[in-house]
Specification:
Blueprint (H helix, E strand, L loop, with lengths): L1 E5 L16 H11 L3 E3 L6 H10 E3 L7 E3 L10 E14 L2 E11 L2 H12 L11 E2 L3 H11 L4 E4 L19 H5 L8 E3 L6 H5 L8 E3 L14 E5 L5 H10 L12 E8 L9 E3 L4 E3 L1 H6 L15 H8 L4 H11 L2 E5 L2 H9 L6 H14 L2 H7 L2 H7 L2 H12 L3 E3 L8 E3 L3 H12 L1
Parallel strand pairs: 1-2, 2-5, 5-7, 9-10, 12-15
Antiparallel strand pairs: 1-11, 3-4, 5-6, 6-8, 11-12, 13-14, 16-17
Helix pairs in contact: 3-4, 11-12, 11-15
């Protein structure tokens, strides 16, 4: 049974997030996207934890999932797993470290134990994603003491400022970061600015499953990326088992629980894919960065070294070698552009405009979910519900035929499927 999951989300109690990120809002977003299992996010925040306890109950089949109390039909509804991202800020080996870690626990008793431990370290009420002065290694130990079945996943592992391998504050290996807790790392998260192929280039990661999540700060960002599991039956333990099994797959003899594939942002669209200096509007590929000694040629300040550069630094496989390795031993992945962006590109309008939103809502109503439309629906079924240019855009994304300007230093990249000339043609046809 396939289970589509997005475990890295936030609540309305995190900074710079939408007020709509409530348990109900997350379930609605999961339905729209086509997600079966969604994270709660932010379970250490006192107010949100109270809300979660008030509104959620264990799934009746005792699977380790949770459902809304108000849910009338549980069988086909999205379910929750209890999740939390922690920002670890500390000094190690003479260097300041800032590391974001995703924790997944199986029950509220474990959440209470972990929250009690963290209350002694930092202010949990200050932010849904609290900043704690503790190492990634110690955080992992606390999580396992709270729940021996805890999932510990280094988040967006290549992001420059806040990640395990980030250029500004990270490490060169999982073992260097997590020490004796390394064996308990369930998986590593690609983040928006890398994809699995980039991660396959680093043999250091061969012992870990590779997952992708949306890191949503608003409902529409849920499912920007996702992980699809093949499980014998939906449960916390089977997802945990699938992570263990997916670090190295024998595709000729697949286990009963494993990662089937991940759903990926085009990494170039991520806001830290390339290197650069936003203040000077400078964006460089790694080779240009090296020629400029990692300095901005305009102001001479250090460039923000992005994900592609860091992968190149730690890689011990060529792209061709990594591709061959992945084909043998790793789950597949599918790249998407969010449906709203495809619609906006076809209309030559911005995401969130009235026309784009109306078209998006209509397609979701008729197509069932965003993932169904983007990934699975047949051409003739698409043609029955969508304008020809939108169908063309979806099919082009499936084929990887896109135009890309990579993101850098906090600026999202630009990925489109149509040329200016095509948009002009579409505009003329739509106005008739």
């Amino acid at each position: 049974m396939l289970q589509t999951t997005d475990l890295h989300v936030h609540s309305k109690y995190s900074r710079a997030t939408s007020k709509a990120l409530s348990p109900e809002g997350l379930i609605d977003a999961a339905r729209i996207k086509g997600i079966d299992v969604i994270g709660t996010g932010d379970f250490t925040h006192p107010k949100y934890l109270n809300e979660l306890k008030e509104k959620l109950i264990p799934h009746p089949d005792k699977s380790g999932f949770f459902v809304l109390k108000t849910m009338k039909r549980v069988a086909d509804a999205p379910v929750f797993m209890l999740t939390q991202e922690i920002s670890c800020v500390y000094t190690d080996k003479g260097k300041g470290r800032r590391n974001h870690i995703l924790i997944v626990l199986s029950n509220f008793d474990a959440v209470d134990r972990l929250s009690t431990a963290f209350q002694k370290i930092g202010n949990l009420a200050s932010d849904g994603r609290p900043i704690l002065g503790m190492s990634a290694r110690d955080l992992s130990e606390h999580a396992l003491l709270a729940d021996s079945g805890a999932l510990i996943i280094p988040a967006h592992i290549w992001t420059p400022w806040f990640s395990t391998f980030g250029s500004k504050s990270g490490y060169d290996s999982i073992a260097e970061c997590f020490g004796d807790m390394s064996e308990h790392i369930a998986a590593v998260e690609t983040g928006l600015s890398s994809d699995p192929l980039m991660n396959w280039r680093v043999s250091e990661l061969d012992r870990y499953a590779i997952v992708s999540h949306g890191d949503a700060h608003s409902p529409r960002k849920v499912g920007r990326e996702a992980t699809v599991y093949e499980v014998a039956s939906p449960s916390y333990e089977n997802i945990r088992d699938a992570l263990k099994a997916s670090a190295r797959l024998d595709k000729t003899r697949l286990p009963k629980n494993y990662i089937a594939y991940t759903i990926e942002f085009y990494p170039e669209e991520g806001k830290y894919h390339f290197d650069g200096h936003r203040a000077c509007d400078v964006s460089f590929a790694p080779e240009e960065t090296k020629k400029n000694n990692c300095l901005c040629p305009q102001c001479r300040k250090p460039l923000t070294v992005g994900v592609e550069y860091r992968v190149e630094t730690l890689a011990d496989r060529t792209i061709e070698e990594a591709s061959a390795y992945g084909e043998r031993n790793r789950p597949d992945f599918k790249k998407i552009i969010p449906l709203e962006e495809i619609i906006a590109d076809a209309f030559g309008q911005g995401v969130g405009t009235k026309k784009v939103s109306a078209c998006y809502d209509k397609l979701i109503k008729e197509g069932g979910s965003e993932f169904e439309i983007l990934l699975y629906m047949k051409d003739n079924a698409l043609a029955a519900i969508a304008l020809p240019e939108i169908v063309k855009g979806i099919l082009r994304v499936r084929e990887g035929c896109v135009y890309i300007t990579p993101g850098y230093d906090g600026v999202f990249g630009k990925v489109s499927v149509f040329s200016d000339e095509e948009r002009t043609t579409f505009s003329g046809r739509q106005s008739r």
